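If you are new to this repository, start here. Below is one unmodified record pulled from the training split, so you can see the exact layout before writing a loader.
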Amino acid sequence: MARALVTGAAGFIGSHLVDRLLADGHSVIGIDNLACGSDVNLAAAMRNPSFRFHVADVAEFASIAPFFKDVDWVFHLAALADIVPSIQQPVPYHRANVDGTISVLEASRAAGVKRLVYAASSSCYGIPDAYPTPEQAPPRPMYPYALTKWMGEQYVLHWAQTYGLPAVSLRFFNVYGPRARTSGTYGAVFGVFLAQKLAGIPYTVVGDGTQTRDFTFVTDVVAAVVAAAESEAVGLSMNVGSGNTYSVNRLVELLGGPVTYIPKRPGEPDCTFADTSLIRRTLNWSPRITLEEGVRRMLENIDYWRNAPVWTKERIHDATADWFKYLGRTS
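And here is the target side for that same chain:
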């Protein structure tokens, strides 16, 4: 069994990863500054004697370095997320997502860890030329969040190349599932829609809803992350997607309920769709959860979003004003 360390452990994906690692019999150290995550997500893990949790900022090397002693696997998921806050506050995003990644890399290198897996983002592709999109597609980050996640990935690959750190990067596509974030930031479609469903108001569909997304269920993403840790792959970036792309209209159909429409946003692709051939070959991994099954599981856990912010057309208009102001100049 491995001794694993998960940064961003109290977050949406991080907490699911912690649960999976503990279920597999590993001992786990979790680090999170709780800026985005919640210790509620770790309720089950906290009862497990093989789990230890530390509230710490990954960008502060001296604070986190001692936790890496004798660690075998490092999973670096800690990051600031979402588009609009990154446009409004690019410097904190650089500190968390770039400086934080360098700090984790250096702590891992000093401790001689055996594997590091980095959670990258498909947002690095921006508006790609090809679908499904391969890893060789040119990076076109459209906003600071995407840029800082891509920069973090470049540092990970450079540490693998220069220092021999056994690291890989996984580019996640549109991850959803139970515990998806419910913070006050306007963000991912599932959290927005589920809170609207509970409130009995229409779903705010961007454009005409024909745009498609590679909605990938969180347990499939976690399985890919674990497979990467168990593999011998080094210095690779690999897409993690569902194997399909689904329209927002199809999502609305599965959730059930009325719809209202809001303007299409600049800098957003009409489609996200991962070419997963590389990860299938390299890790013998494939997704298992269909959108229909994933939505069913989300609805089973809908009470999680009962206290989440409810986004009306008016609130979204105000919250995304800077999105249109800045990204509208470059689209």
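Two things worth knowing about this chain: DSSP finds 13 helices and 13 strands in the chain. The first strand starts at residue 3 and ends at 7.
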